[in-house]
Specification:
The chain is of the alpha/beta class. It has two domains: 99 residues, NAD(P)-binding Rossmann-like Domain (Rossmann fold), CATH 3.40.50; 206 residues, Dihydrodipicolinate Reductase, domain 2 (2-Layer Sandwich), CATH 3.30.360. 35% of the residues lie in helices and 26% in strands. α13 crosses α14.
Length: 406
């Protein structure tokens, strides 16, 4: 296996550091628009299996040429979702398999954005599934932590825990605190704005996909490992677009514990138009307001030594168990920032995202996972992934039995 990883930011750096401890691949090319940043990561790893290059991820031909030049078999896309379609196309042109941690962007319904879906997350990729299958190639989309590990949990629950599923509810929160900053997101603010201010999508079996207002339907969810009760709200996320394609459930939701302050900041950015991506003229220059916001905030990759706390990613499943009785379980993984920093020199949020595509690559290398076309993690068997995650990568995933609602 020869990997082209595009992106040497927080998730990319973590993925390469995790991969460097494994032996399932022959070569790993780290590519970034900033060639010096890619080279710095390769120098840090100090492993002859890694090399660096500069690459324009917005040009499918550049991506394809890089694949051909290095004999790439698998492209791992870990840049922000603006570039998904270009990298996806470049991998296809080169005849490579493809993995990403976020899917192609959505576009609001022109008339009823908070009722009906327009172009959904991933639509621009799923439209090409037949072409990928005809080539015998696999595009494994949404294989981070959320989406990714949460989707694997959904497959596991459907196969092993439930005879009927009422709701697949992704629930995510942390108790992480960043010292020395009044406001410092631990993940790409560009992506956070995109998913939090877009209309959230919900799936119901009798209605299909529909949208709501941002931050709708708040609920307090009790998170494990000392995080405790956190109010969670609806947020646009890929799991809701992935899970119903392969798993039978009455409802699928994604709710994120953002906190009141974070929500107010996002609402203010929207009021001021600073969430917009279209360039505006400032003097003699044109700049994207959202890019300005991102440039004014610290790079999440640099925050690790200022963060304390844990982040929890998981799936709350309700329905009827295999024994015919009501059942509710929370399947989850917790990353402790102290551990990820001490072990990998990477902050917990990006590290937790990065471990999952590396596990998936190893499963593809061994043949434990395989497929053709555009597929989500739910299309793959869950047990090989969860077993390798715990036994091979030392990451314990857990399951809590909860009291079913009466």
């Amino acid at each position: 296996m020869r990997i082209l990883m595009i992106g040497a930011g927080g998730v990319g750096s973590s993925a390469a550091l995790i991969g460097a401890r494994r032996d399932f691949f022959d070569h790993w090319v780290v590519a970034d628009y900033d060639g010096a940043r890619a080279q710095a990561l390769v120098d840090r790893i100090a492993d002859d299996r890694f090399s660096a290059m500069a690459l324009d991820a917005s040009d499918p031909q550049d991506v394809a040429n890089a694949c051909r030049e290095h004999g790439i078999t698998h492209v791992l896309n870990v840049v922000d979702p603006r570039f998904v379609v270009d990298i996806f196309e470049g991998a296809f042109l080169a005849g490579c398999d493809y993995l990403d941690t976020a899917m192609s962007l959505s576009h609001k319904h022109p008339d009823k954005p908070y009722e009906l879906t327009g172009v959904k997350l991933g639509d621009d990729q799923f439209a090409h599934t037949d072409a990928w299958a005809a080539k015998g190639r696999l595009a494994l989309v949404g294989i981070g932590v959320e989406p990714g590990l949460a989707d694997v949990f959904a497959r596991y629950a459907a196969d092993n825990l439930f005879s009927e599923i009422d709701e697949l509810g992704v629930r995510d929160a942390s108790n992480m605190v960043v010292a020395d900053y009044e406001f410092a997101p631990s993940f790409s603010i560009w992506t956070v704005i995109e998913e939090c201010l877009n209309p959230p999508v919900v799936w119901e079996k009798d209605k299909g996909w529909y949208t709501t207002e941002p931050f709708s339907d708040p609920e307090v969810f009790d998170f494990p490992d000392g995080i405790g009760p956190v109010e969670c709200v609806n947020v646009e996320h890929e799991e809701v677009l992935l899970m119903p394609r392969w798993i039978d459930a009455q409802k699928v939701t994604f709710k994120f514990g953002l906190g009141d302050e974070f929500i107010e900041v996002l609402k203010t950015l929207r009021k001021l138009g600073l969430d917009k991506t279209e360039p505006v003229k400032v003097g003699h220059h044109e700049v994207s307001p959202r890019d300005v916001v991102a440039a004014c905030l610290p790079d999440p990759m640099t925050l690790g030594d200022k963060i304390t706390g844990k982040t929890c990613a998981g799936l709350y499943v309700t329905g009827t168990g295999k024994d015919g009785e009501p059942r509710a379980v929370y399947l989850y993984h917790v990353a402790d920032n102290d551990w990820t920093m001490n072990e990998y020199g990477a902050q917990a949020v990006v590290w937790q995202t990065a471990m999952n595509p590396v596990v998936a690559l190893e499963l593809l290398a061994t043949g434990a996972w395989s497929g053709e076309g555009v597929l989500g993690p739910e299309a793959m068997p869950a047990e090989p992934f969860l077993n390798l995650l715990s036994d091979g990568y030392g990451q314990e995933w857990k399951m809590q039995e909860r009291t079913p609602a009466s």
